[in-house]
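User: Please fill in residues for this 366-position structure.
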C-alpha cells in the first residue's frame, strides 16, 4: 500500500509544538508496523505565512493541500497580526482552505475521559459518560454570506454580515449528521433559531425533510440555540449527534469543550471534499507559545480522527485513543488539566512521550 500523503501546516503560536508531538505518534505507529505508512510535507500557513509571503496562504500551500490525502493543522492567528487588514489576517487562510477544499462539515466530538471527570467545571454526575458529536456546517452562513463589510450607509458607519443558507447546503450537512447517527445511537438534535431567523426557519424545514425521507430510522428533534446552550450545562448527556449552523456550531463547541475539562483536549475533522482537514479546536495560545507547556492531546486525537475518517484505519485510531486514556489514567497532566496534588504535571514533550510509550505498550502486551 502506497504511503498516505499528509500536508502539514504547523501554523502559529503553540501550533508547531503540538503538531510535532502528533506527528511523532504517527511515526510510532509506523515503528510497530515495520513500514513507512505516511509521507508528510510541511508548508507555512496563517501568520507564519504572512510574515514570509505577505499573505496568510500562498499558492504553493494551497496546491500542496489539494495534492495530499489529508491535511493536519496546528493553529493560526494571534494578537501580533490583529492590526492587519481583514483580508490578510491569519484566520482568512483557514476560511480559504475550507472553501477551496470543499470542507462543508466540521465534526467536533466532546468526550469526557474518565480520569478527567473532576476537571470539568460541572459536577461529576452531570458529565460522566458524555460522548456527543457536533456537526457544524462550515462553508455557509454568516461567515461567508454577502453582502458583508463596513461602510457608510446614509452617513452612518455600518457593519454588515449576512446569514444565508441554501437548500443544498443544508441537505448535505444534514446527511452527514444522520449518517453519523446511524453508527451511534440513531439520535440527531438540530439546533437553530427558527423563531426569529428566516435562514434557520429554512434550516429546520430542510433538516426535517431529509430525516423523514432518507433516514426514517433516526430520531430527530429540534432545539433553539439559546435553549441548547442552557441544556449543554444542565444535562449534556441528553445529546448524541448535534447538527447546526456555522455560527452556532462555532460557539456551542467551545462551550462543550469546557464541559469536558479543557479546550486542549478536543480534536476536530473537517470533511466533505476529497481532502479532509484535521486540527485541534483550540487556538494558537500565543501567551504560552514556546514555553513547552501546551497540551498536545487535542492534536494527537486529531491524528486519530484523520486515521479514522481519511484513511479508514480504525484499529490504529483506536490505539491512539486508548493510549491517551491510559496516560490520563496514570495521572499525567499538562497545566490546563492539572489540579494541585493530583497526578504529575508534565510539559508538551513529556506528554507526547507518554502517549508514544502507551502506544508501544499495547503491542508489547500482545
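Assistant: Residues filled in for all 366 positions:
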Amino acid at each position: 500500500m502506497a504511503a498516505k500523503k499528509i500536508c502539514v501546516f504547523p501554523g502559529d503560536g503553540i501550533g508547531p509544538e503540538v503538531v510535532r508531538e502528533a506527528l511523532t505518534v504517527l511515526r510510532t505507529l509506523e515503528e510497530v508496523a515495520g513500514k513507512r505508512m505516511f509521507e508528510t510535507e510541511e508548508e507555512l500557513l496563517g501568520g507564519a505565512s504572512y510574515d514570509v509571503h505577505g499573505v496568510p496562504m500562498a499558492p504553493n500551500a494551497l496546491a500542496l493541500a489539494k495534492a495530499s490525502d489529508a491535511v493536519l493543522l496546528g493553529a493560526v492567528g494571534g494578537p501580533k497580526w490583529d492590526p492587519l487588514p481583514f483580508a490578510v489576517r491569519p484566520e482568512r487562510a483557514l476560511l480559504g482552505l475550507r472553501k477551496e477544499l470543499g470542507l462543508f462539515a466540521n465534526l467536533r466530538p466532546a468526550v469526557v475521559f474518565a480520569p478527567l471527570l473532576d476537571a470539568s467545571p460541572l459536577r461529576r454526575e452531570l458529565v460522566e459518560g458524555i460522548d456527543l458529536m457536533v456537526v457544524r456546517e462550515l462553508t455557509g452562513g454568516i461567515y461567508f454570506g454577502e453582502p458583508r463589510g463596513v461602510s457608510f450607509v446614509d452617513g452612518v458607519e455600518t457593519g454588515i454580515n449576512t446569514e444565508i443558507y441554501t437548500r443544498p447546503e443544508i441537505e448535505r450537512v444534514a446527511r452527514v449528521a444522520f449518517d453519523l447517527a446511524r453508527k451511534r445511537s440513531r439520535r440527531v438534535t438540530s439546533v437553530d433559531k427558527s423563531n426569529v431567523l428566516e435562514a434557520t426557519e429554512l434550516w429546520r424545514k430542510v433538516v426535517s425533510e431529509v430525516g423523514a425521507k432518507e433516514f426514517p430510522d433516526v430520531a430527530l428533534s429540534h432545539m433553539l440555540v439559546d435553549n441548547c446552550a442552557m441544556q449543554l450545562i444542565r444535562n449534556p448527556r441528553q445529546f448524541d449527534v448535534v447538527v447546526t449552523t456555522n455560527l452556532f456550531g462555532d460557539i456551542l463547541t467551545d462551550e462543550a469543550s469546557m464541559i469536558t475539562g479543557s479546550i486542549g483536549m478536543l480534536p476536530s475533522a473537517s470533511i466533505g471534499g476529497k481532502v479532509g482537514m484535521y486540527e485541534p479546536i483550540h487556538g494558537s495560545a500565543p501567551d504560552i507559545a514556546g514555553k513547552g507547556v501546551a497540551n498536545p492531546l487535542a492534536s494527537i486525537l486529531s491524528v486519530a480522527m484523520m486515521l479514522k475518517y481519511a484513511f479508514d484505519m480504525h484499529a490504529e485510531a483506536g490505539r491512539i485513543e486508548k493510549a491517551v486514556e491510559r496516560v490520563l489514567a496514570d495521572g499525567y497532566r499538562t497545566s490546563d488539566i492539572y489540579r494541585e496534588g493530583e497526578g504529575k504535571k508534565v510539559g508538551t514533550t513529556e506528554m507526547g512521550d507518554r502517549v508514544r510509550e502507551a502506544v508501544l505498550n499495547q503491542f508489547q502486551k500482545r
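For context: The longest helix spans residues 15-33.
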